[in-house]
Amino acid sequence: MSSSALCRCVFMKLFEKSSGSLKTHRVLSNSFVRHFRNRPTAGIGRTYGLTGVESSRHLKRKKEVKNALLQENISCYDTLKFKITGYDIVLVESFTKIVHHLLQQLNYKIDELYAEPTFEQHIKNMKTSLTANVDDLPTVYSLSYHTRVIKITDLPTHAKPVLIHMMMYFVPQSVTFEISPFVEADEEKRHKKRVALQKAMEELKMIQKA
Amino acid sequence: MLFCKKWTVVFNGTLTVANQIQCISTCCKRMGFKMSDIAIYQNMDPKYKQNILDRKKRKLQKLTKVAVQKIPITDFQVNKEWKSPERKRTKDPLSEEIETSQLLLEKDWSRYTKNVRHLEDEKLENFLAQQAKALNELYLESPALHEAALSSELTFSTFKCEGPVQTLPISNYLAPLGGYVSCSPPNADE
């Protein structure tokens, strides 16, 4: 079986599973073959409602509940950080992308979207060695731990449960996300340690004491 | 003459102090004793001490002027060896049938993802609409509760959620003995 045919088989099975709610889609029920400039369109493009009756269906979808009460007094958080961590970089990146798009869709102020430096975690096994010192044991795997941080300012309080709900719906396997207030220590994590400066300060303190 | 020296011994990461007797004579110059740093500075000339202090302060000022550097992120750094043209694979030409079937499959996939996206957007909109409606009703009931609902969570602890797992945990599983060691990221110190 060729790879493309295999892909198609798998895809159609998935499509059938999920199309329980999509069977009401117009294209499946009453579509006809429509060409564009004497070339086949493969079903892409509108083939129904071209006389203008279709517009009402689209209007229904936009349920903008204009709540004047909400706009009167909105209490917001100062700065929050959405921290997304995991060992699989592909999943972490895709999840950050989803969350970023979500926040942009809802028009919340994204201060910054950055990556914290990745570090390696060595998994050590005590198979035959008798030492208790973890550093001396042989490494079986070395996994790299990735973190992405989205910094948001002035997030309204009523939006937080919405975001948590949607993020929990989208979160992939092996990825953890954390919502917490942004602290100065989080900013300092990104900076290099100034060893020379710390030493100099310690020396000064010691001399001043003596 | 016998002197007693205290040695600090490091064993498996724990500090233990053991008293050992070592024979030392007072005739030799270097006895192996060192005055602590504080003691040196206490017994110094005040002028000499001030000079040292000034030098250290100037050094500190120089170091503080230098801007803080950020740790470089090595996630997307590719090895140069991997970019050589010798490693590039050749692509065999595909027949028209296969190509057309691939393109049609792509179009089917795009249609499917569009529908999925619409469903997700609807879900979000419904959630927001329900929330707004509920808050409206609450305001009609009592404005105090409405305010409390909006301003309740201004101080909160962290919310953490772990993603699902591909396979369920094995019951009565004894993990092998070992440990985890996390290293600091590369180029973390100046």
From TrEMBL, chain A:
<dbReference type="InterPro" id="IPR036838">
    <property type="entry name" value="Ribosomal_uS10_dom_sf"/>
</dbReference>
<dbReference type="GO" id="GO:0005761">
    <property type="term" value="C:mitochondrial ribosome"/>
</dbReference>
<dbReference type="Pfam" id="PF00338">
    <property type="entry name" value="Ribosomal_S10"/>
</dbReference>
<dbReference type="InterPro" id="IPR027487">
    <property type="entry name" value="Ribosomal_mL48"/>
</dbReference>
<dbReference type="GO" id="GO:1990904">
    <property type="term" value="C:ribonucleoprotein complex"/>
</dbReference>
<protein>
    <submittedName>
        <fullName>39S ribosomal protein L48, mitochondrial-like</fullName>
    </submittedName>
</protein>
<keyword id="KW-0687">Ribonucleoprotein</keyword>
<keyword id="KW-0689">Ribosomal protein</keyword>
<dbReference type="InterPro" id="IPR027486">
    <property type="entry name" value="Ribosomal_uS10_dom"/>
</dbReference>
<feature type="domain" description="Small ribosomal subunit protein uS10">
    <location>
        <begin position="82"/>
        <end position="179"/>
    </location>
</feature>
Automatic annotation (TrEMBL), chain B:
<keyword id="KW-0689">Ribosomal protein</keyword>
<comment type="similarity">
    <text>Belongs to the mitochondrion-specific ribosomal protein mL40 family.</text>
</comment>
<keyword id="KW-0496">Mitochondrion</keyword>
<dbReference type="InterPro" id="IPR019192">
    <property type="entry name" value="Ribosomal_mL40"/>
</dbReference>
<dbReference type="Pfam" id="PF09812">
    <property type="entry name" value="MRP-L28"/>
</dbReference>
<keyword id="KW-0687">Ribonucleoprotein</keyword>
<protein>
    <recommendedName>
        <fullName>Large ribosomal subunit protein mL40</fullName>
    </recommendedName>
</protein>
<dbReference type="GO" id="GO:0005762">
    <property type="term" value="C:mitochondrial large ribosomal subunit"/>
</dbReference>
<dbReference type="InterPro" id="IPR039145">
    <property type="entry name" value="Ribosomal_mL40_metazoa/plant"/>
</dbReference>
<keyword id="KW-0809">Transit peptide</keyword>
